[in-house]
Amino acid sequence: MLNVPVRLSIRRPSPTTVSYTVSNAPSRTSFSAQATFYVTIILRVLLAISALAVAVAKFTQVSGAQKVPGAQILFESTSLGTFSDGIATRFSWKIVFPAVAAIIYAVVQKGYTEESLLVIRGLGIQTSTSSSTYLSTAATRFIPTNEIRDIFIHEAFKGFEVRFYLAVVVRGEEDVVVVFPNLLPKRRMLEDLGSRHASQSAGISNVP
Amino acid sequence: MHAFSILTLGIFIAGYITARWDLVTRLYELAIFAWDHGVVTRATKGFAILSVFFFLLILPAERLAAHETILHPRVEGGVIMLGGHKLMRVFWPLDIIRTASTGVIVGWRNSDLDIVVVTVLEDVEARSVENALRIGTLFRGSPHPVGRIYQLCGKVSMQVLGTLNPSNPPPTTLFNSSHIFAFTNASSQPPRIHCPQDSAISVQIILFEKPHPTRMQFMSLNPMSLALDDKPGHAVNGSTALDSVDLEAEKERQRKSRLVEKIGLHTVVRHPPSEKELALPAILTQINCSFEMGALLRKNIGLVGVRPRRHLSVSERVVESATTMWDNAILGLTNSITIWLLPILIKVFIVFLVFHRAMAELILRVLEWRLRPEFAALKDISATAQQVDIRLQQFCYWPIQYLTLRSRKDDWESITDSHPDYIRFYNSLWLVANDVIIGIALGSYIIENAEWVAYQIDSILSSWTIEGLQRMISWLMFWPAGLKLNTELAAFLGDLFLWVIDYWAGCVANLRPLLPQVIYFIGFSSFAGASVPIALFSDLLSLLTLHIYSFYIASARIYNWQLTIIISLFHLFRGKKRNVLRNRIDSCDYDLDQLLLGTILFTLLFFLLPTVAVFYLTFASARMIIISLKAALDTLLACLNHFPLFALMLRVKDSKRLPGGIRFELYDTQTASTSLRQESNMPRTSYIRLKSVPLSLRAMFQQYFQLGHRLRKHYLAPHVSFCLVTGRFVPPIHRRNLYSLQYSMLPATRASIAEVWKRLTERPAKATRVRVSQGNINSRRGYKESAIF
């Protein structure tokens, strides 16, 4: 796995609610970075549309089904339509359909992970991990405060390295809930997060 | 002050003055005397000196102290207190954020700074609403007792919480938690709670969408369970059911719980749960109830204060009379049906149900009968018997389930206990309907093509299990693949198996003319659902491959014996023997003749082993193929009987009905409240959105995962391959464990006939009572619409 630098961003609208987000996405603060981001989005959408068009063209050729009149005009008049028709006639369906599936799969991939910890005083904490594609939503887990037994930072082997992790012990559960389970930020960052947060909850203790 | 009390006070003072005129004149004389002797000027001088003292000394000291407190906040035990900030938590429904009108906020107050807003009542005064809430005017005409809701919502009652968009601005310095002031406007800005900067209160506004109880939406802290959890210690009740997999899992669980206990010892700071933290389950119930309570309050608002009411226009009146006339006609028709026809139909239906229940009980008893407790019952052996058992148990459970669901109508719709029951009931109904529909299609096909199907099955069976096996054995008898097996032994074994196959082929040939009738029977049985022919086919397969099973067992025994003998003779060959008492290998001094004979026998048996192994391998692989075929059929049966189809449809249609927990989303306050922050003295407000997480697909298919896990643990274990290699009998997985999936939606013990009769006969009385108390057609129609899904 590539070691992408992980950034921590904090949102704190009031002293009782804090959201810590850890992300390995490239920073998008400068204008050029933002422009690149939007251009890639547009390119992704275009690529997906053309891949789908090729798939539709191939499907109509293979099944011999009549095209819907509107689609017929669309395929004959636009350059995208003729282009996709051309590609569809050149290759067999055994190549076209897997290729289209692969392109669609690659297009919806996000390419980065974003994990966050939302601490709401009086309610509990919520961990969330963004999904790897643009299609599905983030997986979240909410733990009410009275179910939290302890929060600690510990170390574990992962592959050939030792990583520190922040974990929550939940009452009545066998397994601890690891916060930021995929990115596993550095120990300095976790400790920083803990000491920053000490002003709010006295629950974080560092078990050596 | 109220105008009336001012008038009263004035009249009182005037009366007092006229009655005690002499006292008033005395006071007047005293005032003249004091003025003459300079009392007033001396008092003014004293006041001026005190003011100068205050301005010069006290005020600067106070400013300095305040400045210092800001510079050095108080540190207490290493933890920085939030400047003594207290947290005000407000749960605010999303449907009242776009009004600009004035109103009274009504809701639940869980603790001093923890409130749940239910609704806003417009055009009334706060005091009269409070009175009405106390007396109960606002709950008049409630379909069910309000006390039940109070009991569920943590034994707090509804209160007036504050004012929305007050007409006169609230006091700027004072924050009163018992009466808040909130502001909303027509744009989609979130609500704003008036909270002065210096009151040291930070506000959490948690916006939620009211779950619609009629659509059976609700929020829940824990994922809802689709299976029926009334099987206490399912794995524990019988020692036979507890196999090695369960034991291993139990051991692992204990190890983990010990670890968790150990983690508990490391806890440094333990803080007792606060009132706010404990209130969360009650708050979720309050949110679940808020829609219905809000509707009830708004309906009764006319009883409280003056409310501007618009008269209906002529066209509206015409429309109204037309609709009510249609309703009246319907009402008359339904009344005549309900009074004359329905009771008779219900009686007939109940008698039919109980008769059906009695028949089912009889068949179930037969299916469950065991010769001795440790023997297998019929349903443990045959897939068909088990399928019939499942269907009958479902039929037995349905009336009870339906009555439970009907009793839901006697209570508030916000009460969410029976929603999983509802999903289970309609899921099983829908699965049975699907099963029957697929079965009819399958059955009509089989009946129409019975001859052809019978011919195909016969040809496949004979070509694979008889001719194929015969060819295979003859091939093995004459040096297969150039492997020089022992000719005599191979010929003996091959001839033995070939004779048995010949005999079996003769038996099957006798049965062959019957096969079309059997296929006809299977075809007709499939009108009871596609699962029946599948189960029948599974049983037919085990019957028609009985010879392969017996071959497998015979060859496995021979192979195993030979292997055991070879191992013990190998010990002899090494000059050792097995000590059974100590369970170890000891040295042993054998005589020469013993050694000689043993070694000769060892060599002999060792050279004969490949021949036996080849036959064993053939039959074992045939047996494995049949087992996997039956496993595929069983999986198909499990899908037909248990697939969470209804839950999946609900997930697509309205995922709020399948809550799998809750989720909070922090609103980006940079955009949400910068404008607000500028315009007023908004201190620290965070906006959080409370959402319901739909049940994950993994949780829906939880039991399938469990089943897969169990099968994998059982059959892909090294133990099983060891058994296969040494020719020992592979212990089959207990059918009860395997099919616990299919029974997961059924109760562990079914209700007795007497109980069913009792519950069915008491139903009509209850039903009429409900009808009288409700009396509102519209609400019932709404229920029916919701009941379709």
What would your notes on this structure say?
- The complex is a heterodimer of chains A (208) and B (789).
- Chain A is of the alpha+beta class and 208 residues long.
- Chain A has two domains: 7-25 and 111-206; 31-108, no CATH class.
- Chain A has five helices and nine strands; from the N terminus they run E-E-H-H-H-H-E-E-E-E-E-E-H-E.
- Chain A has helices at residues 31-63, 69-77, 79-90, 93-108, 187-197, and strands at 7-14, 17-23, 114-120, 124-129, 139-144, 148-158, 161-170, 177-179, 204-206.
- In chain A, helix 1 runs antiparallel to helix 4 (93-108).
- The model of chain A is unreliable at 199-208 (pLDDT under 50).
- With 789 residues, chain B is of the alpha/beta class.
- In chain B, the strands form three sheets. Chain B has a nine-stranded mixed sheet.
- In chain B, a hairpin with a 2-residue loop joins strand 1 and strand 2 (79-80).
- The two termini of chain B are 58 Å apart.
- Mean pLDDT of chain B is 80; it is low at 75-83, 232-241, 671-682 and 765-789.
- Chain A binds chain B through residues 11, 13-17, 19, 118, 120-124, 126, 128, 140-142, 144-146, 149-150, 152, 169, 173-176, 198-203, 205, 207, and chain B through 79-80, 82, 85, 87, 89, 114, 202-204, 206, 221, 253, 256-257, 260, 263-264, 266-269, 271, 273-274, 276-278, 280, 661-664, 666-669, 673, 683-688, 693.
